[in-house]
Prior knowledge:
The complex is a heterodimer of chains A (485) and B (96).
Chain A: H1 3-29, H2 33-39, H3 46-57, H4 60-73, H5 75-81, H6 90-94, H7 96-105, H8 111-119, H9 122-155, H10 159-207, H11 211-221, H12 237-248, H13 255-258, H14 267-298, H15 308-316, H16 319-357, H17 363-386, H18 392-416, H19 422-442, H20 453-476
Helix pairs in contact in A: 1-10, 1-16, 2-10, 3-10, 3-14, 3-16, 4-5, 4-14, 4-16, 5-12, 5-14, 8-9, 9-10, 9-16, 9-17, 9-18, 9-19, 10-14, 10-16, 10-17, 11-14, 15-16, 16-17, 18-19, 18-20, 19-20
Chain B: H1 2-41, E1 50-51, E2 54-55, H2 56-80
Antiparallel strand pairs in B: 1-2
Helix pairs in contact in B: 1-2
Amino acid sequence: MNWQVIIPLLLFLVVIFSVGFWASRYVRSTDSFLQEYFLGDRQLGGFVLAMTMIATYGSASSFIGGPGVAYTKGLGWVLLSMAQLPAGYFVLMVLGKKFAIIARKYKAITLIDFLKERYKSTAVVIIAAVSIIVFLFSSMAAQWVGGARLIESLTGLSYTTALFIFAVSVLVYVIIGGFRAVALTETVQGVVMLVGTIILLVATIIAGGGIPNIIQELVAENPNLVSPYGAERDLTPIYVSSFWILVGVGVIGLPQIAVRAMSYKNSKGMHQAIIIGTFAIGTIMLGMHVIGVFARAILPGIEIGDKVMPTLTLEVLPPFLAGLVLAAPMAAIMSTVNSLLILISSAIVKDLYLNYLKPKATEKQVKRASFWVTTLIGVSVILFALSPPDLLIWLNLFSFGGLESVFIWPIVFGLYWSKGNKYGAISSMVVGMGSYILFDRLHPNALGMHTVVLPVLLSLIAYVIISKLTDKYVLSSNLHLESNG
Amino acid sequence: MKDNAELKDKRFKIAHREAIIGVVLVIINFSLWFGFAYGLGSGDPASYNYVLGLPEWFFYSCVLSFIVMFILVIYSVKFLFKEVPFEEEEERGDHT
């Protein structure tokens, strides 16, 4: 065990813990538990908002999986990863002020609250809650596995012990601190991710003898490594471009991101967050994936993609700095996991339990339910992660695509098209989820594009056509409640 | 009440405009990214030009486009976006 590396990591955990405990003060003293626990009382400022968004968005795949693939495929994969830049500004600009205003008007605490008020439909709520629980659970398990593997490779502990350490450290502060703890710890984590990326990038370039030298070594090995088509020339323009849907604009349909678009305090915070978020996400994505490519010139012959980033860090940095930089993927993983955990918990407690099982639950019962549900989910993910499935990055992307296909149109049209109705939303969600699963199983990457593209299109068509067809019926049965346009 | 409804209309108008700015930015972003990557990078990798040691296509499409987008985002937010109150109640003395 390398204590010089482990000490900064432990320090990082201590800081995260303290922030989490500090946030739990608010949960204990609040007079509106649900809004505080699941939304941080809508008090996020610009910097915290930006950091919580990028930290939630940037996950194990940005720091471990992604650079690993970039190592094998070359600069073409960096090009692909830059499709993530819009996530920094597009979500906040498009959901933007309208979502913030309407969410307040509806008194919505979760994304599902918004959908429930907008569509007045039990079916919408149930489908939404189930998709969040199913898809995010699998995504969370993937992150959990990543976290444990990282600790395993750094400390030499067994996978099970590593998993346990990781799980306990995340669970404690999320359970007691709720959304505010998540957002504040994510701010620390976001900064660690950003700074870690920059340190490692600089160290990598120095270790490789400068950029020109590194690139020429790659060209000497295989010129395609520096082409946009990938080392094997298998990255076609249409495939790479389709990631703009998956990890760029489609991010708008991710509940864990969308919920943050209703958590901020005022427009000023939102404006700052757009600027900071764009800078941070661009720097992290570009930096980490370039690092993955450059690593090939410094450490050729790494077989397992997930090992590239940790191995490189230990190689090019002195131990103490390496520990700091390795806190970055840890931060990325923790910050994704904690957001998902609180979101799944809100789907169960707020959207299912309070809506249908026990509408008249007292404050105390709600509190107890929230703590228990969060704990239970956490523990069951651990059990799931004990026999982990392979290929982190794809598991993670699977839930991205599935959720986007389900949520993107009900959210976007819910805000911007007053004629969109519950029948449109239900069919769009069912078509989105159904076609995503079918395409993924039977015909992945249809027409050379990432699987997500067609389901998103199909759910768009379903939403529009069904809303149009049922428009008259909705009007005549007088269910059309209000237009938001 | 009428005032409130009017205010809401105005706020939504601003929100809609800003959403459209978001869409325009993505279109610019995509065009720069795609145009430079496949416009400059589709030839034989052995005959690439280099800028600051990076292949030309990569420098323009990934590094420079990022910087350009960042500047455009700052410009949009500073000069085109407007601050609006979110609350229904009259709590907006501090930022209008």
